[in-house]
Hints:
- There is one protein chain.
- The protein is an all-alpha fold.
- The longest helix is centred in the last third of the chain and has 34 residues, at about 305-340.
- Helix 1 runs parallel beside helix 8 (about 150-165).
- The chain has helices at about 5-25, 30-35, 40-55, 55-70, 75-95, 100-110, 110-145, 150-165, 170-200, 200-205, 215, 225-240, 240-250, 255-285, 295-300, 305-340, 345-370, 375-400, 405-425, 435-460.
- It starts with a helix and ends with a helix.
Amino acid sequence: MTPIHYLGAAVVILLITGVGIYAGRQVKSAKDFTTSGRKAGAGIVAGSIIGTLVGGASTIGTAQLAFSYGFSAWWFTLGGGLGCLALLFFVKPLYNSGISTLPQVFEKEYGVSCNTAATLLTSMGSFLSIVSQMLSGIALISSIAGFIPPVVSTAIIVFLMLAYVIFGGIWGAGLVGIVKTVLLYTTTGICGVLAITLQGGISAFVHNVSLPAAKYFNLIARGPVVDLGAGLSLVLGVLTTQAYIQAAISARSLRESRKGVLISVILVPIIGIAGIFVGMYMKLNHPDIIPATAMPLFILEQTPPFLAGIILATLLVALVGTGSGLALGLGSMICNSIFRTKKANDKKYLLTMRLVIFAVFILAAAFSTGNLGSMILGWSFMSMGLRGAVAFGPLCAALFLPGRIGEKFALAAMIAGPALVLLGKFILPPSVDSLFLGIAGSFVILGIGLVKRRARGLRSQQ
């Protein structure tokens, strides 16, 4: 890293910070902070979704996995795009429900106990994802500026996350998400095109004996259950994560909401392609590197210093954006479901939201610098699947089978889903994704509840 590298990075960081502060000036009330007062256009909706969904796993993580498995790495972003596609079918009932958080759907349909359970269980998954983004950011800063100690790296990331979202809420996530999306897709696209060009075209990858097609050009190279399970985790994670639902319901109309989600469907999978070719390029030309460093090293070696600084800073912003968007969703759920500040006056609610988000960042920073770091990073990908195991079945029943499932069965399904996912990690062979067990168990319990409610209705008619 030279002074020119840092100059390019500074331009991006100052731009993002400025947009975040500007977004804060758009916030006049708590509704502006959490759902933009339902004034967001399709661009803000798409910016919020992409800005949160496309982070370290979609860029650095994709290049890392592609280094070892090629196109199997596409499940990070392909699954996210499929999740947004599935979200299109949920947008109308969610938008028309008038809710502002996912657990409110469960309280409206099943009762307060399900609201609380959903908040606590899904919040744990979201928190692990925030920690993983901080850990990725620390690793990125350390790899390009080894003289910066981890504590200072953590402080930089926390400051950027605060600037990203705590001032502007959904406006910050959306406006910064738009800027981040333009920067990220432009710079990552440049890397992908450059990798293909330097290698001599796509055919040079396809016909290279060091990249056997059965492994590197196979979407299920790690095994169909593993890779399809990874895709399913992302689909269910998108459908059951507050950050993405919050973005969808922030639109000024159902039409704008659908347009924003549709833009995400198209754009999210594309970003992974560039990362895949960067990872495979580094496998061919630098086979002995640590896979996680594939993209940062490619950027430093193959792009001009000023552009390299811009790209590296953009990757950092991508990590920051994902963590910030998740923290916004987590804060909304906690305020509405745990602290019950919904009925508080507007200023008190807004202050509480910001304090909760600030506390989440500080707690995540403490975890990131502790000895639990490596363990949490290893479990972070599973967090999306855990959220899906908690909420997917009960959400489907609440939106599409209202009044058919009782509170006890819904609560049992919420608890059994993630419990079976964790249990499956110990009792199932490594080739079987335990998410399938958790989802199946959740739906079995809901099915029993549906049959019992129907049988009770028939007896009452007799």
